Amino acid sequence: MVNTFALGFWTAGLKFARFASYLTEKKYNKISVINPGTNMSDAVLGTVKLSKYFEQVILVGYPPFVRNVLDELKSQGYDFSSVKFHIIVGGEGFPEEWRDYVLGILNGGILDLEKNLIASAYGAADAGFDIGYEVPLTIFLRREMRKNKELATDILGDNYPYIPHLFQFNPLKNWIESVNGELCFTTDTPIALVRYNIHDKGGVIWPDKLDEILSKYYDINQLKKEYKPYRFPLVYLYGRSDGVVTVSGANVYLENLKQIFTLDFINKYDLTVRFFTYLSYDNKARPLFNIICECNAENVTKDSKKIEEFRNEFVSELSSINSEFSNAYRSDTKACAPKIKFLTPELFTKQNPYSIKFKYIKE
């Protein structure tokens, strides 16, 4: 197992390292663990040097960093067919195109859950590290919803914004409710939580309801035989509903961005204080951090030199006020570097119209 979650005082890396250590202490677990964190060279070198002594490799970490590790292994000619290679990720969501891309590296694009398990886990620092998990059934359903809008509507309801992640959870450990479209947790943590709301958007599907829906589209008995699901409920997750955008596992808060747009340096670019941000994905399903700015000078919107200069200053300011982003940027500059675009007020308003509450973070 190669743990590439950020270490130090980052909850995910520390907790997962402790969890992995616990696994190695059990006599029935034949597993060894290394913890390179977000050190790319150590993660790649450790995998190359050690995997030849093992039957399986489990690479764990944030989706963008895991993809970069896989790309680097591929560029070095690593033979993925020499071992069973599995992926476990968490910290941020990904589209199914990301899973397709990873499968293309590991197994020629074939979804073989026996050979290559690629799964995400759902956790939160305050509500529990292991809230839910992707299992073969949830992966199957998410991929099916991508193709079948009627199935997606039956499971998610009308007006769903996009296909969310699906996780299976144990209600005896984490009792999850959906209240006004947000998930609330009742769980036995060191400080007991009762209907605790971390403002994640989503909902819960209980097994009987899921069976009723799936029987409309599939042979339910065959489906259960093939995927052998536990009789556990599912939770679907769209993401945090408050002012946060996640960039390679680092939380970039809306207040950070607002702070930057109040600084004097933006005046030399004729920028207003209006902006919005969103994540998009390139043709390899890699997330891109986009910042769209309103600019009063049309000539500046076409000046690539000035835009690049602004990007450098923006990164410098954001790194100085957000240590998570700073560390993520140093670990993976390409993934974290924002894509900056200047728009005239007219074009900006077309993309983000005025409203009572301005939408700084777009989906």
Count of DSSP E strands?
A: 15
Termini, distance in Å? 34 Å
Reported by name, the CATH topology of the largest domain is: Rossmann fold
| Number of domains as seen in the coordinates | 3
Order of helices and strands: EHHEHEHEEHHEEEEHHEEEHEEHHHHEH
Tally of alpha and pi helices: 14
C-alpha geometry: globular
The gyration radius over C-alpha positions equals 22 Å
Mind describing the biggest β-sheet?
5 strands, mixed
Query: In which order are the strands of the major sheet placed?
Result: 1-2-3-4-5
Describe the structure.
The chain is of the alpha/beta class. The protein folds into three domains: 1-116, Rossmann fold (3-Layer(aba) Sandwich); 129-242, no CATH class; 245-351, GMP Synthetase, Chain A, domain 3, CATH 3.30.300. The protein is 37% helix and 26% strand. The protein contains 14 helices and 15 strands. The chain has helices at residues 11-25, 40-50, 63-75, 96-107, 136-147, 149-156, 207-214, 220-227, 254-260, 298-301, 304-321, 323-331, 333-336, 345-351; strands at residues 2-3, 56-61, 84-89, 118-124, 128-133, 165-168, 174-179, 182-187, 193-205, 234-240, 244-247, 250-253, 271-281, 287-295, 339-343. Strands 1-2-3-4-5 form a five-stranded mixed sheet. A hairpin with a 2-residue loop joins strand 11 (244-247) and strand 12 (250-253). The longest helix has 18 residues, at 304-321. It starts with a strand and ends in a 12-residue tail after the last helix. 31% of the residues are buried.
